[in-house]
Design a protein that fits this description.
With 155 residues, the chain is α+β, with helices and mostly antiparallel strands. It has a single domain, classed as STM4215-like. Helices cover 30% and strands 39% of the residues. Helix 2 runs antiparallel to helix 3. The longest helix is centred in the first third of the chain and has 14 residues. It is globular and about 45 Å long. The model has no long low-confidence stretch (mean pLDDT 88).
């Protein structure tokens, strides 16, 4: 699996299948770059941007996650934010059999090789032109190991 796809797939599975976030959002809707037109609120959108500034095995990237809601207050968006931080800040992505998984503790790693590390780097509300639309943006800095194919292609 391609490195970017592996990272996004692992994070998608971790976030979309979280029971607490599912309760907060009445079903997690997480889109890649955007969601379908007229998607039901609340929803989340994510993307990954890697830096090509280091030719080695470890590469830097930013993982962007935007939270969207419609309502009279920001209460739900802040509940979503709190849960996402608990899920992703200081988390690691490990190889788990044939796939990858996001873990948050040493016990969950059980000797697996760490493929990527995430850290919350920036966050905040984004003003929107439409009344009662709440948009919260989060950026997680990441360091990840390139795939064996990508490493071989470096030589």
């Amino acid at each position: 699996m391609d490195t970017e796809k592996a990272i996004l797939s692992a994070i998608y599975a971790h976030v979309a299948n979280d029971s607490q976030l599912n309760t907060i959002c009445s079903g997690v809707r997480l889109g890649l770059i955007w969601t379908p037109k007229d998607e039901t609120f609340p929803y989340l959108v994510h993307r990954l941007a890697a830096y090509a500034d280091y030719p080695g095995v470890v590469q830097r990237a930013d993982y962007f996650l935007d939270l969207w809601d419609y309502g009279d207050s920001a209460t739900k968006i802040y509940s979503m934010r709190e849960r996402v931080v608990a899920l992703l800040d200081k988390a690691c992505i490990i190889q788990n059999g044939e796939g990858y998984a996001v873990v948050q503790s040493d016990e969950e790693m059980s000797g697996n090789l760490i493929f990527a590390r995430l850290r919350l780097a920036s966050f905040g509300l984004i003003p929107e032109d439409v009344d009662k639309i709440w948009h919260y943006s989060m950026t997680f800095s990441m360091r990840f190991t390139r795939s064996l194919t990508e490493i071989t292609n470096l030589t």
